[in-house]
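Practice set, problem 2.
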Amino acid sequence: MKNEDLLQIAKTYGDPVYVYDSEKIISQFNRLTKAFSSVKKLKLNYAAKALSNITILRLMNSLGSGLDTVSIQEVQLGLLAGFKPESIIFTPNGVSLEEIEAASKLGVRINIDNLSILEQFGSKHPKIPVCIRINPHVMAGGNSNISVGHIDSKFGISIHQIPHLLRIVELTKMNINGIHMHTGSDILDIDVFLYASEILFDTARNFKNLDFIDFGSGFKVPYKDGDIETNIEELGKKLSTRFNEFCKEYGKDLTLAFEPGKFLVSEAGVFLAKVNVVKQTTSTVFASVDSGFNHLIRPMLYGATHSIKNISNPEGRERYYSVVGYICETDTFASNKRINEITEGDILCFKNAGAYCFTMASNYNSRFRPPEVLWHKGKAILIRERETFDDLIRNQVDLKDLFTVKQIAKVK
């Protein structure tokens, strides 16, 4: 996507606006598939929570991807997008037995991450295959909020609870067909990931009827020039070799599964916002845009870095700016960053806006959520309309007669 294409999209669909490049998504999917090409059975289950627009889901389905879901609503979206039930895995955390049973009735694969629900589900539905999510007690991830495999994490069944787990399986006679882990996002150290994988292999040896082992995901992508990322090719080579060895030992060709989200869509997305005001203070130059953390919360929530380019003046002299939003509290996208000279009305382009950006958007300050556009084969295609005031109040119950407006007597 060239600057002139993005500027035209902002002009056509208004700003702020999210734009996704289908070609980048496809190339990332193919790159990951190629990295593990030496494995006989590979299944990539796209993590719907990263970007759940139904058009993106349809694109993933067309590539042969499965779908990783964490809510019954994501399961329903996946089915609506054309995924076969058996291609969807339901990996929730802390949900009710009723929600898991509802997903099971839809025919999707079930992944359970706690002993209580495992025992309840196994007692009621012993014939339904179940995957078990293990907590390997391995710390990985670039932020405490996205590191989910450590000992204090709420996710997964502790490896120290394996004896209890095995007793539940034995007593209920339930069918365990998969073992799963997810250590966290922004994985940099491949050796740490491989260490956690060995824990998963050790756990898998306790079950004789497995069909797959799911290693989660969390592969890091670069967020700025010169940034480091997960070496997918090296990981693919090392883990594939070890996985193939385990399959020989196990006596069966299992499926190696991943659930990539950010890796597939992050770099494909950009977020375009217009500069409303350039404000000089005694110490800072602020570029205030027509958006805020209601649309892109990651910098405020995670301290995430999104490279910001001025596509209206790409050759301009670089100056230092703090890019801020219009939300009525601290709302900072970037502090003291070198950006080509900004004037009011310029369009700023936020990179890596494909994953966990629109899906975490809200109507805070009663602002509308922005539209989404797919850049596909050289054309801009609207895949979500900008919200309107009707959308904002659609589900509110306006009780006009509940309160009486107090009449204030006029002063004579």
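Problem 2, part (b): a different protein.
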Amino acid sequence: MVVIIREYNPKTDSDRVEQVENSCEVGPNGELSLYTDLLGDPICRVRNSPAYLMLVAEMVVSGGDEADGTTEIVGMIRGCIKTVTCGSKFSRNKFGDCVKPVPVLTKLAYILGLRVSPIHRRMGIGLKLVRRMEQWFEDNGAEYSYIATDDANEPSVSLFTEKCGYAKFRNPSVLVHPVFAHRLPISNHVTIVKLTPFDAESLYRNHFSTTEFFPRDIDAILNNHLNLGTFLALPKRYIWEGPDKFLSGPPKNWAVMSVWNCKDVFKLEVKGASKLRKGFAKTTRVVDRAFPFLRLPSLPKIFSPFGLHMLYGLGGSGPLYTRFIKALFGFAHNLAKECKCGVIATEVSSEDPLKLAIPHWKVLSFTDLWCIKRLGEDYSDGSVGDWRKSQPGLSIFVDPREF
């Protein structure tokens, strides 16, 4: 047997890759597992990134002199590269005085969608895929590489931290909330305005450009067809007159949020649930639909394929801005209900006060683990030094293209 690592060929590999994907659950083995349906497009999760690559591991079995060799795809990996903020420094005016913080950028690579067929694990295939992908990262000038995994997924954590040289870096929280059959109320003291992509870009670059992991190509994200809009929550009497006036004199409290349509990229399904759990979930939906005015919590059809909306770019200002975030959350829930999504999700830093302010179900939410690796030692430390050794900031910017 020989394992060959090569680039994914959509004309010949799609069906075989889908078979491997369907055999793999996300996260650690257990009673319940999360499965991903990529809707027939194996590169859908990296397709919208500035630069991306997908590799497959193909096992070639020789049949001897009288038989032809057979090939089988036993694993795959995706990767993408972009430029992000890794820190900040203060700019100076002509007199040498510090004026304002400006972002320090780095070229960052991201590994996602590493899969190895269950019957071909513990054979070093995952390690070969990672090393080949890292070579592509280095060839294209990436300074750092990072991955996201479940902290409880011991095989994944072991592969990257013990064999590939990654270090545990950040522990953001993935907050998940079901979409009910009833609508959520929105405060009468808040006005929600939908921004144009241009106005949203101006706001994000002004307020979030020094946030860790903020993508330099934020304009590409905001103009993507999967972006359902950026929404600004303002006090009831405040009149939106464009980004220039807002940025020069914003209200005391405000909040912003964008919505990414993951439903058109992939669908998820929880498998392994008992009939009792499925029956209980169905009962909650029936009661919710029958009596929507009671606003009873219900569990959507997560035991069959369901879609989700990703909330990203959440932030704001003011002593009461978390109340405005909750108004945006209610708006996002109602939008997801209209689009027939099963859940809405977001990801925030473990240090972010939004972690406590954003409504979510603990049973559906979890702590993520981001691990990072420096790909070369000949890079300049710049203004932030070695990013691996930096302390976490209050917030991170989670790119919806990689969720």
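Answer key, part (b): The chain has a mean pLDDT of 90. Residues 321-338 form the longest helix (18 residues).
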